[in-house]
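Key result, reporting period 2: structure in, sequence out.
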């Protein structure tokens, strides 16, 4: 009888300990994200190999980023690849070095590389590009239309 009681107590202790340890794991304390993407154009032409960053307004939230493909399209990532963006208000910056279009001589010359995108768009405070992302915006295709004027 004593052995059965000891086994039962040990089993209960193991279950209790297992339950406590399960709650101590990495958890899912990440805020929910919304899968959002878009297209970047400069004077109506797609911008390839550009880095697009969404910076949360007033330091609330979490930044998200993506890189454009040959057609200018991008998808945003916050915690994991292509997981989207946390809903909120964002200022956006876009940078591109268009390295594919630069000759080997230019790369080796020591001259600084220049961006095809005007400098004002490389800073979220001067770009003038902003978006509000809501919980219901999943699948939304954002258009970031930049101009050289």
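The corresponding designed sequence is given below.
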């Amino acid at each position: 009888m004593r052995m059965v009681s000891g086994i039962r107590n040990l089993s209960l202790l193991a279950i209790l300990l297992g339950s406590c340890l399960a709650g101590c794991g990495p958890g899912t304390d990440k805020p929910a994200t919304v899968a959002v993407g878009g297209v970047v154009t400069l004077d109506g032409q797609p911008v390839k190999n550009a880095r697009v960053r969404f910076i949360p307004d007033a330091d609330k939230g979490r930044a998200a980023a993506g890189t454009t493909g040959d057609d200018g399209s991008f998808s945003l990532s916050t915690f994991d690849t292509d997981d989207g963006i946390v809903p909120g208000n964002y200022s956006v910056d876009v940078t591109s070095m268009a390295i594919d279009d630069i000759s080997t001589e230019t790369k080796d010359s020591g001259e600084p590389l220049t961006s095809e995108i005007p400098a004002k768009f490389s800073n979220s405070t001067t770009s003038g590009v902003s978006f509000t992302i809501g919980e219901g915006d999943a699948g939304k295709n954002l258009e970031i239309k930049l101009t050289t004027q």
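Strands lie at 37-42, 45-46, 50-56, 64-67, 73-75, 88-96, 130-133, 141-146. The chain has one domain: 37-146. This case is discussed further under Risks and Mitigation.
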